[in-house]
Amino acid sequence: MNSFTPDRTSFEARLHKIGDERYHDKHPFHHLLHSGGCTPDQVRAWVINRYYYQSRIPMKDAAFLSRVTDPALRRSWRRRIEDHDGTEDGTGGIHRWLRLAEGVGLDPDYVSSARGVLPATRFAVDAYVRFVRDEPMLPAVASSLTELFAPKIHKDRIAGLLEHYEFANSDTISYFQHRLSEAPKDVAFGLEWVLDHAVTKADQDAAANALIFKTEVLWAQLDALYSAYVSPARIPPGAWQPGEGLLQ
Ligand SMILES: O=C(O)c1cc(C(=O)O)c2c(n1)C(=O)C(=O)c1cc(C(=O)O)[nH]c1-2
């Protein structure tokens, strides 16, 4: 019978180590994007596929909320949906992502139709929504903790896009600018909740494994993008072809 449960500090360090080793800031596609090495079509492919992730985040948060019995937890978590959906037309993260889409020359209606999304992106993102819907509460919350590592990548992205790409300006990058203040609030709450609720070794393992699963969801999306649009550029049947979905 396991009797030794590592303390909060070493458990938190274990979660951070997962990010240090596995977060998608290390993926070659991000290196290419942030250093100015992407062609306009590679940026467009990223915007189209990443939209699918964005669009499913509030759906997974709604699935999560539908299982929560504690009003205080619901009150805190529901802000995530408002961050993405906004509180009225023309506000929120999804709207801001579509401004980025227009900035790179894409028709926002095409992007929001999700027609050209890569199959592996769809599978990975849908797996995340199902995971949060179906797994116990602790792994469901822990899977959101990749956001611990997001502010750094958002800062790198803002700096890299502004330095290297003509389309980048305060309007087109406002999605990332907003996340710099939104994500730390989400993750401060989520981390506290996980540290409070992971009280046995088995709980801590389940939370750590959920975080690993989530890094894989993110990594798989970039692998799909790299293999379809970078090298050797094998676009799967049905996925976005350069030239499609452009602004008229
Ligand atoms: O640009 C990124 O690299 C990145 C990563 C992540 C993440 O780590 O899951 C999120 C976001 N951005 C993001 O913008 C966002 O709203 C978000 C929500 C969540 C989540 O799991 O609930 N992750 C992320």
UniProtKB/TrEMBL annotation:
Keywords: Oxidoreductase, PQQ biosynthesis
Domain Thiaminase-2/PQQC: 13-223
GO biological process: pyrroloquinoline quinone biosynthetic process
Pathway: Cofactor biosynthesis; pyrroloquinoline quinone biosynthesis
PANTHER family in UniProt: 4-AMINOBENZOATE SYNTHASE (PTHR40279:SF3), PQQC-LIKE PROTEIN (PTHR40279)
Protein name per UniProt: Pyrroloquinoline-quinone synthase
Claim: RNA-binding is one of the keywords in the record: no
An MF annotation (GO) of this entry: pyrroloquinoline-quinone synthase activity
Species classification: Bacteria, Pseudomonadati, Pseudomonadota, Alphaproteobacteria, Rhodobacterales
Coiled coil residues, start to end: none
Functional summary from the UniProt entry: Ring cyclization and eight-electron oxidation of 3a-(2-amino-2-carboxyethyl)-4,5-dioxo-4,5,6,7,8,9-hexahydroquinoline-7,9-dicarboxylic-acid to PQQ.
InterPro entries per UniProt: Haem_Oase-like_multi-hlx (IPR016084), PqqC (IPR011845), PqqC-like (IPR039068), Thiaminase-2/PQQC (IPR004305)
Family label: Belongs to the PqqC family.
EC number assigned by the record: 1.3.3.11
